[in-house]
Amino acid sequence: MSLFFKYLSQVIFLPRGCANLKSLRHRRRWLGRLALILCTWGYWIQPVQAEGSRNLYPSGTTGARANLEWRATDKYGPTTPADHSLLRRTLLQVYAKAGEYILLGSSSVGVDSGDILIYGTKTGRIGNETLSNLKFQCSTQRTQTLNTNQGKISSRNQELAGPDTITNPATATTGGAIANGYVPCYYQVPVGGDGIYYVAFYGGQGGNSNFDGTPTSTIDFGTNFKDPSGTSIAAWDVTVRSSLTSTTDINGRLFADYLALFTGGNGRLIESSFYIVTKDGYQYKTALNGLDPNGFVIYGNDVGYYDSDGKTPLYHDVLSAVNNALMPQLQGGTNFALPNHVIFFNNPQTSAGTNDSLFARGIPTVATLPSISNSSFTGTAGANNSNQNTGGVFKFDSNVAGNYEIVISRDGNDYDPANLQNRVLRGTMTASGSQTVTWDGKDNNGNFFPVGTDYPVNITTHAGEYHFPLIDAENSTKGGPSFTLLNVTNPLGNNTGFYDDRGYRTLSGTNVGTPGSLLCGNSPPSISHSNLVTGFNTTSTQRAFGTATGGNTNEVCTGSFGDVKGLDIWTYVPSNAVLTYLNIIPTTSYQVSPLAGQVIINEVLYNETGTTTDTNDEFIELYNASTSPVDLSGVRLTDGNVIVGSSDAAGGFHYTFPSGTTLQPGKYAVIWIGNNNANHQATGAVFQAWLGQTPKLNNSGDDVWLYDNQNKIIDYIAYGAGNEVNTPPQSSLNLWDNTYQSSLAGANSGQSISLTPNGKDTNISACWEATTSGNASTRCPNFLQTRDTDTTGSRVTSVGESNNGATTVNAKLLLVKRITRINNQDLTDIVDGRSDVAITAANYVPEPYASDDNDLAWSAGYLRGLINAGTVKPGDELEYTIYFLSKGPNDATNVKFCDLVPASTTFIPTAFNGKTPRDGGLGGADQGIALAVSSSSPTVYLSNIEDASDRGRFYAANDQTPSYCGANTNGAVVVNITRSPDLPNLAKDFYGFFRFRARVK
To answer: Exposure check for the chain: N or C terminus, fewer CB within 10 A?
Structure first.
């Protein structure tokens, strides 16, 4: 810097008031004129002051307004397979120091129950926080000052001006120093109170409502500031100042993890901008550019959405599995990823308070550019060579945490990660340093890479990765949002982003849409995906979709392209790309693994009871027959011959045991082909995995292979015949004698085939039989009768337990659930549940439950009510009845039921108040549960609380429930049916029901 400009920086660039300007008149005239110009320019470029809705809708902005939301229980996103839902409420966070003032106001203060609260403590994950340590409440201060204008933003001018100064705190008398300023509520941070405070804005309905209200969406219209807007707030402000009389706002102190917003309809385009700071310190301006949602959330994270394994970044859109805008379940087992970047309302580059906020959140103030080194590949055949149909391990060093992307190119030229013939491996690096990534040898289509040399591999890492999930955003006719990177230079371009609106195959093998083709929905983008290597210009209209108005059907694939979807758009700063190479060499001979005879295939269920991922109960059970622990790391279970490339392709399954998996002597591991749910459990197994797939084992004939991590055969079995019985291992290996193989086909639905004696691997088909059939009794040396220990439906297996031994005759129960009342109308229909109808049919019930209502032991006409009650509306009351029947042959003891309150409903705790007889619980306690024993009407009414002599209890959402309930995200009803001395057990054919009522949200 020259001495001249050093002088300018010291003398001319003065505080905003330019107090020393007068002294400059004594200097040379041209310098004085320059000082005046620079001072005036300093005022002109001053950013919008204070922080709140005025930042989202500054003076002169066009488009519509989205109100800020605070709802009690409504949430966006899935609660299964993991609860990554986000409550529809905006929790603002403000950093303030001792002595500073937090000034607050909103257009809902003074309207019914509208209020502003400040809390000192937050616990729980983002999206489901619990607030405590209430520090301040605006309504309380208004009562103290008797100033009815305090905290109230009553005009557009007041919103833009921000808070006025206060000269008399006792009466909240303003000083008039801020023209058109509103009268703020105020909280002074006490000595030692430096830190983050949590601000909740309540709409006119208060903090315990889910009522929509009717926001007008207009930016400069009076009713926005007068009419109640339900649970949303039109104008709001959080400003930090050093004193009540100061006019200087300390910007950069207000931030949020996500914003829950509501426009009240479509055709209301939003032109707001805000700023995202990533968890690794990259700063982006995000402009919505006419985005047109209705109810929606704004947030950023580093992965977008999760693939079906719950941890791998998806880099695709997600589709709701049900017709519900809140998307409580997604197709393909995908899931939301929670916010982990921070939203700011003023430019962090020019806001004095930003660094304080970043420091408090543990976010670096300087972004570190990514780089990688020391890349390598180690194959199963040594060095960078892998045997055919096997993979290997990539290693590299990264200087930062973040995401990685490894692309194996089939042709050596195309590195498109979506090319089905290539393979992309993606994941998250939780720390810098050495990274290890395992490859299974397959391409993106699930087929093994062919024999070849010098396949090039491109490895990059991403820093500053920012995904903006568009949750149920119906329309974006201008192509928004757009990104602008502020604090570093992106080699791809500072406005570059990526999207991919095509169908895909999840890691579990489930197709979402048609892979490679545009996803369903009306008025999609004209270009289905950006270039996934170089990206696209996010300020363009390339990704425009939807219509000018409407498109909000809340039904999958029937509305505008963004309706009932989670779209993804993302950007990142890439590292240097490094290349490594690998070879796939042919495997010319079969080899038997040293683990052969130690770990064996012990039981297989191939004739499933249902065909969806939720009802497919196919499984393979392994058993450690040795006397030592066995390391299963990299061991592969499949139904194909990988030695010669004879496989079932997409019709087959593959599972590789994760690193560190050990099976102890005499213990069982069970791999389920379907989803993880209550009916797919082997309680006696020490290891279980679920592939989340539809049936893969052919009922007329198939094979199961177990390989070690060097592609050597551990065990093999086959049953039946047909094209899916692949080329078997050479007979000289003595791995299988197929004399009785054909007889192993034909097992009943839900009946497994078992090895006998348990764990004695003689490698002959003679010692396998359909479980409990006794077919092997005359052909198998040392035969022992196989047994049924399975209590799920009519299944006949001993999954997770010994195939032999004294058979304990278990008691079984049938359960049938019906809706028996809507509002005041009892439903007395008798409906036959069936699985052979469309899943949308009113009587559809999945297997293995469809026949449960046909059991002859049910009393005639007992099972009344509907399976699907059709369309209901908010406020409707529904009655759920769960009928039970003891099937014997033994008496059922210790019978406990748990039924989860359906999503989008609220348990009614007083449904049966005043009904008698009670079950002996506390007098005066609410009664929300009814129980009938051997009766068509309730015989006793249960309380909701835990009282010793009463058999019922209601658990509120997220309360700790008994383990057999599963995830309690919306409440659970638990009833202990049996009780001594009056009902110690349920004898065979004993029946009854319990019921509760819930209100539609």
So the answer is: N
With CA atoms as reference, report the closest residue to 238 among 340, 133, 353, 324.
353
Say if residue 6's pLDDT is above 50.
Answer: no
* CA–CA separation, 386 and 377 (whole Å): 10
Nearest CA among 143, 54, 147 for reference residue 106: 54
Asked whether residue 228 carries a pLDDT value surpassing 80, the answer given is no
SS3 735: coil
Q: Give per-residue pLDDT as tens, 926-980.
A: 999 999 999 999 999 999 998 877 899 999 998 888 877 878 889 999 999 998 8
Question: What token pair was written down for 612?
Answer: 């969806």
What distance in Å separates the CA atoms of residue 304 and residue 488, rounded to the nearest whole number? Answer: 22
Closest alpha carbon to 543 in 494, 476, 473, 468:
476
Q: What is the pLDDT of residues 548-582, one digit of tens each?
A: 988 999 999 999 999 999 999 999 999 999 999 99
What whole-number distance in Å separates Cα of residue 153 and Cα of residue 168? 19
992 alpha carbon, distance to own chain's centre: 37
Q: pLDDT (tens digit, 9 = 90+) per residue, 211-226? A: 988 888 888 867 677 6
Pairing of strands 254-256, 195-202: unpaired
Say if residues 800 and 685 touch (Cβ distance below 8 Å): yes
Q: What pTM value is reported for the model?
A: 0.62
Q: Which of 245, 253, 218, 224 is nearest to 236 (CA)?
A: 224
Q: Between the CA of residue 497 and those of 94, 313, 887, what are the distances in Å?
A: 30, 16, 60
Q: How far apart are CA 639 and CA 693, in angstroms?
A: 14
Q: What angle do CA 695, 698, 701 make, to 5 degrees?
A: 160
Would you say 271 and 62 are in contact if contact means Cβ atoms under 8 Å apart?
Answer: yes
Nearest CA to 218 out of 335, 351, 367, 61 is that of 61
Amino acid at 505: R
β 687-690/701-707 pair status: unpaired
